[in-house]
């Protein structure tokens, strides 16, 4: 199940956790379901072992995760009272992504990392980074099976949320048969799976739907049907009292259209200045496309900031995109 | 895993399948992913056993399922050439829901039913109805483990689609730990899980998004925030060249709003005649609410047809709903 290196690291981590009495767990900036779920599950388990545990997050917890057991204990400021024996960086293997908690790396007696994001530079006393796992919550699940703890309903809920959110409800290509096996073990513990999924996906701010409605009014599609786009002006967002949070995920809608390979979302930042988000469905390298405009990202998700009038920017992207799509 | 009754029925079914040479499989009207996936998986497996198999569907296969292995063989008309030894009703235990294929129940030598919908009257020689299974595809999976067949990538794809669609990507409360165990076994066979989920959920007709955009323009919410609604006029649908297919699922959007328990969707059928769809999130019995207006359905999903002006109908539903919500 694990390779030799991973097995050794899991053992070393168990050792670190067993020895420390006062432990801080911290996730990355802009916390998501995996980061929070994995952190809380591990912390709740460590408490079963008699440890003193604090939960840190460099950014506030999004309202949608307010139902997670233990989440109300998550602190965004450093708790000076606790002389730290162990600092655990969860779902984060880049020190800068710990925000202001980065300074604890020097102040804690020991530092360990539990993560699954590839391509980082190791730091800390134990650096457990397993990119084959879909979620940090999966790594924590395996870790808990090696510790003298009971996975109760609260811990199962946290781990399930970690796995379900980071795999897009088991849809993304990071989903392995092991993810389903772990989910099966968690479901056996009997937490209310349908209710938790409703709390995750059916409790959206009203404003998000209003922003979606406004964005869909701008929906356009190329003659060939392979590129679709939407845009959002500052005035519209202002009139809806909308913030960044409410625009999140809107780029998925033009990508959902049959035949579309590339989706673009143009969001006005200032007069004649737009943030452009790019998403592709099956094959187009949008990282490469965004690089033509001074941006970057990943093969299926990238972004850049471009100056100019909306119609001109749109034309430039469409021209560049159609050239790329033609080459395929 | 199975109770005594089910075990006996599985054995009887294996016996029927082993004896028959010419077999027709048929799903229900308005076929969905479970009905098609389960039917195709079983048929492909029966061919491994040397059986002659035809696939029937009373309604055409929706375009979104066009990627399913074997789906292009599905016929909407009766193939007179084949004297039927065995007719298998898949995901359907109400003869009328077989549409015009219902007549084959009398013409086939033997009839068996494989379904998971509760509350029907038994018919046929073997009536295997297991409501504890989330999907007919799950029942077929168990059946295949009892037959001399190999679950290959094509069969795995069909079974996965059956389970994933009928559980809302493993989100609904019919999802059991066994569903995840079965999904894990299927994923081991190595079909492209992310690609299949994109084909299912990211290949929507452009018109569907345009209809959603138009519907969101009508989004309303009660003062208390517990009831939200949208509406759709015939003229709007007409101007977008939209059909029933493009309106499907739109009722989910008002229900997604934080704090909303009841979602309503008013769709104009004729002048002053509306189809009203009702959905609740956690607890409200919309079957009961719809019954007050001459309709019905299930506790979380119901509908009715009401005459009157849109604003009047809206007021009547809101009044009735707020009374129910107050009682909770």
TrEMBL record, chains A, B:
InterPro entries: DDH_dom, DHH_sf, DHHA1_dom, Oligoribo/pAp-PDE_c-di-AMP_PDE
Pfam families tied to this protein: DHH, DHHA1
Domain DDH: 22-163
Listed GO MF terms: nucleic acid binding
Coiled coil start-end: none
Chain ranges of the DHHA1 domain: 240-321
Protein name as annotated: Phosphoesterase RecJ-like protein
Organism: Desulfallas thermosapovorans DSM 6562
Lineage: Bacteria, Bacillati, Bacillota, Clostridia, Eubacteriales
């Amino acid at each position: 199940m694990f390779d030799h290196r991973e097995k050794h690291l899991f053992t070393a981590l168990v050792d670190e956790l067993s020895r420390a009495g006062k432990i801080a767990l911290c996730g990355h900036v802009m916390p998501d379901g995996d980061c929070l779920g994995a952190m809380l599950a591990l912390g709740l388990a460590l408490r079963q072992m008699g440890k003193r545990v604090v939960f840190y997050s460099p950014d506030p917890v999004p309202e949608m995760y307010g139902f997670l057991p233990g989440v109300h204990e998550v602190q965004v400021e450093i708790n000076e009272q606790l002389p730290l024996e162990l600092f655990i960086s969860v779902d984060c293997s880049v020190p800068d992504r710990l925000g202001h908690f980065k300074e604890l790396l020097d102040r804690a007696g020991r530092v360990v990392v539990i993560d699954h994001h590839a391509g980082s530079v190791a730091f800390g006393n134990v650096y457990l980074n397993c990119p084959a796992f879909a979620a940090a919550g999966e790594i924590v699940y395996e870790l808990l099976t090696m510790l003298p703890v009971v996975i109760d309903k609260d811990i199962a809920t946290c781990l399930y949320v970690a796995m379900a959110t980071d795999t897009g409800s088991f849809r993304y290509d990071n989903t392995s048969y092991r993810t389903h096996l772990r989910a099966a073990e968690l479901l056996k513990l009997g937490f209310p799976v349908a209710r938790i999924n409703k709390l995750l996906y059916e409790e959206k701010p009203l404003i998000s739907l209003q922003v979606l409605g406004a964005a869909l009014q701008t929906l356009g599609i190329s003659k060939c049907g392979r590129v679709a786009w939407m845009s959002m002006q500052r005035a519209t967002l202002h009139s809806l009292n909308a913030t960044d949070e409410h625009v999140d995920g809107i780029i998925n809608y033009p990508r959902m259209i049959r035949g579309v390979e590339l989706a673009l979302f143009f969001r006005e930042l200032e007069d004649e200045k737009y943030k452009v988000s790019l998403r592709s469905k099956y094959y187009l390298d949008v990282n490469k496309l965004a690089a033509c405009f001074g941006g970057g990202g990943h093969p299926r998700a990238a972004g850049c900031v471009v100056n100019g009038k909306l119609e001109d920017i749109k034309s430039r992207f469409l021209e560049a995109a159609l050239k790329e799509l033609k080459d395929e």
